C-alpha cells in the first residue's frame, strides 16, 4: 500500500515533518482555502505541490508528495441540478485539467447532500481516557425532532424510534444538547461550513422533491459530463461512500451498500469511475461486509480509507440499536481488517503483474482516537496525530506480516 496521510494544509496543527516522521510517504490534501465551486488555478495547485515537497525551514525536500486530492468538492447546485449547475461543472472540469497538468490524477469526492460525515459526539471517552467519534441514532433523531424541529421529521422514524428520542431528549442538559448540535453541524475544512440550525433547514430545502433515484441520476449526469475528460487525462474519480450509510434528516443517500456501487458502475462503466473504499463508512451499516466489498470491487478501487467501527452491546440482542456505532482501533471492530488487507495486497499484485505503473493503492489511516498527546496540538476532531500514527503503524505491520505469509514482496 502507498502509505498516505490527510493534511489540511499549512494551518493544520500536524506538520509535514510530523507526517514524515510517522512513516507516511504520500499526502492527501486539497486547496481548503478555495470555496466550493470556485476554480482551482494552476498557480494555487503548484504552490501546494511545492509546500508538500519542500521544507523552506530546513531548505531541503520533505520526502513527501501530494498524490491524492481529497477533495475537489462537488457544489450543491450540481447535486440538485439547480441554479448555475452546468456552469459549475465546467469550472469543475477546468480544475481537474489544472490538477492533471501537475500530475494529480486521483480525486476523492463524495455526493452526500449538505453534510459530510455526521457524528453526534466528537469526543466519546473510552476507558483508557482517549476519545473517539460516536454516531448515536437516538441522538440524531432527538436533534432532528426536538432541536432542529424539521417539518415532517416524524415521518422518518418509527414509533419506537420517536419514543427513544423523546426519552433521550428529556434527560439531556442544555450543554449536552449544544454538544450534539455542534457535532452534527460542524463543517469539515474544504467541504462544508459550520451551520446554524436555521441555516441547516435552509440547506435541506434545496433537496425538497429530490429522492434517492433523482439524486442518483444527478450523480450519473455529473460523471457522464466529466468522464470523457477523465478518460483523456487519466484522472481517476474515487467516490467516497455515505457516512453514516443511510438517509438522515430526510436527505437521500445513494452510496451506502454494495448494490449502490454496482448500480453506479453499471451506469458509468469507465474504469476511471471508481471508489474510495472507506471501511469505516461502509462499516457503519451492520449488514455491509467492507472486506467482501473490497474483494468485489478491487479493480475499481482507486483509494482506501482504512478504519474500524464498533456497535454497542446491550443485554438484550433484540434491543441493539443497529444504527449506533463509534470509531474503534483500526484493527478491531466490525470490519475484518485482515481480510481487507489481504484483498488489497492481492489486488496490488494483480496490478503489478498486469504492468500497471501505479500499482500501489494509496491508503490512509482515518479517524484515529484523540489521545492526551494530541490535546496540546489542538487536533481537528477525527484527525488526531497520535491515534492515526498508531493506526498507520498497525496497518503497516499487518501489511508486512500478510505479505510475508502470502509470499509477496515486502514493500
The CATH homologous superfamily: Divalent-metal-dependent TIM barrel enzymes
CATH architectural grouping = Alpha-Beta Barrel
Lateral strand order in the biggest sheet: 1-2-5-6-9-10-11-14
State which percent range the strand residues make up.
Answer: 5-15%
What is the helix content? 40-55%
Question: Tally the helices: what do you get?
Answer: 15
Q: C-alpha Rg, in Å? A: 21 Å
**Helix and strand sequence:** EHEHEEEHHEEEHHHHHEHEHHEEEHEHH
Low-pLDDT stretches: none
- Average pLDDT for all residues: 93
Tally the beta strands.
14
Overall domain count: 1
CATH top level assignment: Alpha Beta
What class, by secondary structure content?
A: alpha/beta
Determine the CATH topology. Answer: TIM Barrel
The description of the largest β-sheet is: 8 strands, parallel, barrel
How would the global form be characterised? globular
Description:
With 411 residues, this protein is of the alpha/beta class. It has one domain: Alpha-Beta Barrel (TIM Barrel), CATH 3.20.20. Helix content is 42%, strand content 15%. It is built from 15 helices and 14 strands. The strands form 3 sheets. The protein has an 8-stranded parallel β-barrel, surrounded by 4 helices. Strand 9, helix 10 and strand 10 form a beta-alpha-beta unit. Helix 4 packs parallel to helix 9. The radius of gyration is 21 Å and the shape is globular. The N and C termini lie close together (8 Å). The mean pLDDT is 93.
Amino acid at each position: 500500500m502507498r502509505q498516505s496521510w490527510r493534511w489540511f494544509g499549512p494551518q493544520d496543527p500536524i506538520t509535514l515533518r510530523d507526517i514524515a516522521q510517522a512513516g507516511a510517504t504520500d499526502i492527501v490534501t486539497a486547496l481548503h482555502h478555495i470555496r466550493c465551486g470556485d476554480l482551482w488555478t494552476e498557480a494555487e495547485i503548484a504552490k501546494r505541490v511545492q509546500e508538500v515537497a519542500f521544507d523552506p525551514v530546513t531548505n531541503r525536500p520533505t520526502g513527501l508528495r501530494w498524490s491524492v486530492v481529497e477533495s475537489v468538492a462537488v457544489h450543491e447546485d450540481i447535486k440538485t441540478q439547480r441554479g448555475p449547475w452546468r456552469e459549475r461543472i465546467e469550472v469543475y472540469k477546468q480544475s481537474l485539467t489544472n490538477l492533471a497538468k501537475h500530475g494529480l490524477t486521483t480525486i476523492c469526492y463524495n455526493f452526500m447532500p449538505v453534510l459530510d460525515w455526521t457524528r453526534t459526539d466528537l469526543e466519546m471517552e473510552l476507558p483508557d481516557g482517549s476519545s473517539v467519534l460516536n454516531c448515536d441514532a437516538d441522538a440524531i433523531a432527538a436533534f432532528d425532532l426536538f432541536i432542529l424541529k424539521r417539518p415532517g421529521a416524524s415521518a422518518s422514524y418509527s414509533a419506537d424510534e420517536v419514543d427513544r428520542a423523546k426519552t433521550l431528549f428529556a434527560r439531556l442538559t442544555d450543554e449536552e444538547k449544544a454538544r450534539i448540535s455542534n457535532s452534527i453541524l460542524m463543517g469539515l475544512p474544504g467541504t462544508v461550513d459550520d451551520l446554524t440550525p436555521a441555516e441547516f433547514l435552509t440547506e435541506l430545502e434545496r433537496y425538497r422533491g429530490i429522492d434517492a433515484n433523482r439524486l442518483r441520476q444527478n450523480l450519473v449526469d455529473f460523471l457522464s459530463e466529466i468522464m470523457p475528460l477523465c478518460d483523456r487525462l487519466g484522472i481517476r474519480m474515487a467516490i467516497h461512500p455515505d457516512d453514516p450509510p443511510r438517509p438522515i434528516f430526510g436527505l437521500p443517500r445513494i452510496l451506502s451498500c454494495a448494490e449502490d456501487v454496482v448500480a453506479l458502475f453499471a451506469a458509468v462503466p469507465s474504469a476511471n469511475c471508481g471508489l474510495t473504499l472507506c471501511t469505516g463508512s461502509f462499516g457503519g451499516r451492520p449488514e455491509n461486509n467492507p472486506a467482501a466489498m473490497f474483494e468485489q470491487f478491487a479493480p475499481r478501487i482507486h483509494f482506501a480509507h482504512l478504519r474500524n467501527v464498533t456497535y454497542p452491546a446491550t443485554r438484550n440482542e433484540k434491543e441493539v440499536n443497529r444504527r449506533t456505532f463509534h470509531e474503534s482501533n483500526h484493527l478491531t471492530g466490525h470490519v475484518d481488517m485482515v481480510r481487507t488487507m489481504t484483498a488489497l495486497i492481492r489486488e496490488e499484485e494483480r496490478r503489478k503483474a498486469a504492468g500497471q505503473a501505479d500499482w500501489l493503492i494509496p491508503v490512509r489511516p482515518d479517524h484515529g482516537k484523540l489521545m492526551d498527546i494530541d490535546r496540546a496540538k489542538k487536533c481537528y476532531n477525527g484527525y488526531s496525530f497520535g491515534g492515526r500514527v498508531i493506526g498507520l503503524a498497525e496497518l503497516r505491520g499487518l501489511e508486512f506480516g500478510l505479505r510475508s505469509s502470502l509470499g509477496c514482496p515486502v514493500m
